[in-house]
Specification:
Aconitase, Domain 2, 19 strands, Aconitase, domain 3, 5-stranded parallel sheet, single chain, alpha/beta, 3 domains, 465 residues
Length: 465
């Protein structure tokens, strides 16, 4: 019987396997940031040990950094403390840090692929649930807890139970106005925020193969939002073309050898999955969430479910979500007035996302009484956007182009949505208080966000293209 992409990578990284126990899994690359690493470094200090393989750990700051005045001291005391602690820890343990001002600084899941650090066939971990992003390049990538961060720093290995394998196929062609963010929001809305629990997902099919590399990252990024351990896409020429020439990608003969090895990674034709799901790309429309988890999503022209349309066991949580969002069962979101539009996060802050928005808003103005924040995912993205003149497009439209960071994806820095305000966001989570205490979040694609920025309300971008 053939093997899956996941099996090939996992099996190649097992250091020790014993029945009844987790596998000892070697980790190729470990990303760290300022939020989930301090306790791990303190653990190393208390044991009197160092980082086992410092060249396999990549450090940056992203969650707590301000996106305005990045050349000045951080105003928020806790954010400043965490960034300063990260700087001290990296210095003490001999790790290079992509800190504020460094040309490689940015959101951890943006910088890995764009710098060529993330490569097919790798195992990658980080103390952040959206590490699954890196799976778009054909890796096993997943988030870990703080104690596991310490474990990897100390040993470059992890104890892990092998998850089940799921294949999700999306075949056919997407309709105009529908992009990769809509694909993943559609899938999660259909299988729920727990539908992938216990599985590692491989995305396949015509619609996936037709996506750009950065669009694939958006899909893998949100795998965790369906409860999956991670998501991945088999490498192909799109992957190799994306990686070629990037700073940390192999060069010369080493590149040829790497590509030859990567071509053997895709799942065999007779590989079997524990579960397979199929979706028709043509049946997906622009998506928007209405509740307080990413599974509570509808097509932009649809209606919020009525209480009768919801499973009896879920009605209490459903009602609680709508109360928080101040929405009514059975109502529509089309035309819903907004206060903020946020375009950024590790889900949708890459150069292709910014190009998509700029192309749509060129020559247009943002709606009155609406704030629009554009936050690039890295210094590299910011630099490219300025080189292409996207900053001028955004400025002319009345948008605020900020410095790179996690920003308003989560209320952990200065960029918070005020209580009671509505924000249409390209980020990955719409939990209660995620973007700030009592903030109300709708998740959508960059294209739908661009339409909302111009109209001031949730709109069907297909009517505006």
């Amino acid at each position: 019987m053939g093997r899956t992409l996941f099996d090939k990578i996992w099996d190649a990284h097992v250091v020790k396997s014993q029945e009844g126990f987790p596998d000892v899994l070697f980790i190729d690359t470990h990303f760290i940031h300022e939020v989930t690493s301090p306790q791990a470094f303190n653990g190393l200090r208390s044991r009197g040990i160092g980082v086992f393989m410092p060249d396999r750990t990549r450090a940056t700051v992203d969650h707590n950094v301000p996106t305005l005045d990045q050349d000045k001291p951080i105003k928020e005391a806790m954010s400043r403390f965490q960034v300063d602690t990260m700087t001290r820890n990296c210095r003490d343990f001999g790790l290079e840090l992509y800190g504020l001002g460094h040309p490689y600084q940015g959101i951890v899941h943006v910088i890995g692929p764009e710098l060529g650090i993330t490569q097919p066939g790798m195992t990658i971990v980080c103390g952040d649930s959206h590490t699954s992003t890196h799976g778009a390049l054909g890796t096993i990538a997943f988030g870990i807890g703080t104690s596991e961060v310490e474990q990897v720093l100390a040993t470059q290995c992890l104890l892990q139970q092998k998850p089940k394998r799921m294949q999700i196929r999306i075949d056919g062609r997407l309709r105009q106005g529908v992009v990769s963010k809509d694909i993943i929001l559609h899938i999660i809305s259909r299988i729920s925020s727990s539908g992938g629990t216990g599985f590692f997902v491989e995305y396949a099919g015509d619609a996936i193969r037709a996506l750009s590399m950065e669009a694939r990252m958006t899909i893998c990024n949100m795998s965790i939002e369906m409860g999956a351990r991670g998501g991945m896409i088999a490498p192909d020429d799109t992957t190799y073309n994306y990686l070629s020439g990037r700073p940390f990608a192999p060069k010369g003969a080493a590149w040829d050898q790497a590509v030859a090895a990567w071509r053997r990674l895709p799942s065999d034709e007779d590989a079997e999955f524990d579960r397979t799901l199929q979706f028709d790309a043509a049946g997906i429309e622009p998506m928007v969430t209405y509740g307080t988890n990413p599974g509570m999503g509808i097509g932009v022209t649809g209606h919020i479910p009525t209480l009768e349309e919801v499973e009896p066991s879920e009605r209490n949580s459903f009602s609680k979500s709508l109360d928080y969002m101040a929405l009514q069962p059975g109502s529509r979101l089309l035309g819903k007035k907004l206060d903020y539009v946020f375009i950024g996060s590790c889900t949708n802050s890459r150069i292709e996302d910014l190009r998509m928005v700029a192309e749509f808003v060129r020559g247009k103005k943002k709606a009155e009484n609406l704030e629009v924040w554009i936050v690039p995912g890295s210094k590299q993205v910011e630099k490219q956007a300025i080189q292409e003149g996207l900053d001028q497009v955004f400025s002319a439209a009345g948008f605020s182009l900020r410095g790179p960071g996690c920003s308003a994806c989560l209320g952990m820095n200065e960029d918070k949505i005020p209580a009671g305000k509505y924000c249409l966001s390209t980020s990955n989570r719409n939990f209660e208080g995620r973007q700030g205490p009592q903030a109300r979040t709708f998740l959508a694609s960059p294209l739908t966000a661009a339409a909302a920025a111009v109209t001031g309300c949730i709109s069907d971008v297909r009517e505006m293209i």
